[in-house]
Queue: 3 jobs
Job 1
Amino acid sequence: MSNATESIPEVERIVTIFGGAKCSEVDPEYEQARRVGELLADSGFTICTGGYLGVMEAASRGAHERGGRVLGIVMNQFKAEPNRYLTDKVATPHFYERLQRLITRSVGFIAVRGGMGTVTELSLVWNKIQTGVIGPRPLVLLGACWPPIVREWQKHLAVSQEDVSALDFAETPEEAVAIINEKSRGVTL
C-alpha cells in the first residue's frame, strides 16, 4: 500500500462509499458494500472509503479482489489500522480534512447503512450539492433503511421534496452502480 498524498490522477473517476464501521461479514450491509466495490471496479472506477473496518473494508475488499484501485482516507488521530484491502492511503490530521478529501474528487457517492458518521458524511455531501458548493453528481442511498429515514427528516426537519430530489435510492448494489454509471458521465470536478 502506498501513501498517496497527492498522486491521484486528474482523469481518475472516483466513487466514494460511506457506511458504518461496526458491521461484520455476516451483516447484509457488508455484503452490499462488497458487491458495490466489485461492480464499481468492474466499471473502471476507483473507489474511495474512510479506510477502516465494516462497510469501508467490505467495499475496499470487493474492489481489491477485482483488481481495482482502492483509496483510503484515514485519520492520524485514529489508533486503528486501516483495512488490508487499500491500494493507497491518504492520511489526514482531522475529521474536516478527511471529509473534504472523501468528497471533493468524487464523481459520485453511495451511502450504505451506518451510524452517525455515515449520516454526517451523507448530510455534508447532500448540502454541498444543494448549495452548489460542488456540482451535481449522484448521491445514492443503498438499502431499505434510507426511505423511512428520509421521510422522517422531511416530517421533522426543514427538508423539502426538492431537497430529496437530489438523492437517488437503490435497493440493490446493481441498481446503485447503474445509477452511478448513468449519472456520473457528465460530472466534471
Job 2
Amino acid sequence: MIDKAEPAGLLRTLFKSKSSHPLVEFFRYFVVSGASFVFDFGLLYILTDKLHIFYLLSATISYSMGLIVSYLLSVKWAFGRRSMSNKAAEFGIFVAIGLAGMGINALILWVWTGLLGLHYMLGRAVSAVIGYAWKYVARKLALFK
C-alpha cells in the first residue's frame, strides 16, 4: 500500500518501507536501473576513452558490472517479493535475462557505431532505454511475482 497521507509517508513508502506494490516496484526498479546505468556508462567511458579498450569489449565489461549492481539493488530494495528460494538459480535467471539484454545492447551499439558511424555513448543511451523495458518486464514475470 502506498502511504499518500503526507509527503513524508510517500517518500518512506517509495524509498524505505518494504513494498510489493507494482508502482513502488516500478519506481524502485527505475532508480536501480538508473544507478546501474550510471555505473555502466561511467565504466564504459573510462575503459574506452581513458584505457583505450575496444568499445564493444568495454561495453561488455561495463554492462556485466552494471548487471551485478542491478541484481544486488533489485533483491535488496527494488522488489518486495521474490518468487525463488534458490538464490543461485535466481541469480542465474537474472543473469540470463541480463545476457539477452547485453545482446540487445551489443546489436544496437554495433548498428549505431559500426554501421552508422555515430558516437558509441549515444548508442549506449538508446540501448539503455530499450534494455530497461525488456529487463523490467522479464525480471518481474520470471523472478519477482
Job 3
Amino acid sequence: MRLLSADNNTIGAWFIFSEKIYRELPYPPPDNFDFSHPRRKLIPSALQKAPTVLYLHGNTGTRAHFLRTSFYSALTARLGANVLSVDYRGYGDSEGKPTVQGVSRDARTAWDYLISQGAKPSDIVILGHSLGTAIAGILSSELSREDIRPRGTVLMAVGTRFQKFILETEKVFISAFLICQEVDRPLLSVRTHPALKASFNGSPYFS
C-alpha cells in the first residue's frame, strides 16, 4: 500500500497481519487487480486484536529483502504481532531522495497511519535495525517530546556512536529493549545513498 507523508512524498508500505488474524481471513483472498487492496479495510480490526511492530529497516535493500520477510514471519507467528514495514523515500517503490529529515518524516508517517487506523500508542512497538536504529531513536525522541509513549522501542545492531547518543540524550524514551551489537565502524556507513550519509555528518554521533 501507499502512504503520504506530511511533505507530500509517497512511500511504499506493507501491513502484515498476525498469523492468528491471517488464519481467520477468508481464502482465497479477494482479487487485487486494480491495486485497491480490499483487505486494507481489515487493518483497524487487526490493530484492536493484536499489538503491532513498526519495523524500520537498515540501509541494504528494501522492505522485501528475504531476511526481512523471514523476520516478519517470526514476529507475526511467534509473537502474534502485526507488522507495518515501510521503505524510506528513495528506497524500493518510495518516491524522493533520502535525507535525515525526510526518512524521519517517513517513520512518523507510518506511526501516524497506525494511530489513524485506531491503534493505541501503548500497542505499538517501534523496532529499528542497523540504520533504522537511528530513525527509530529520532521517532521515539519526537514522540517523547509530545508526551506520547509507545509500548516500547527496540534497537537491533546499534553502532557504538549511537549507543553514546542514547546514553547522553535524556529526551530519548526507551521503554523496552536495547539490543546492542558492539562494532568499531560508524553507525551510518551508507553506500547506497551517500546523500543520507552526508546529511548526518553534522552530528558527532552520525558520521
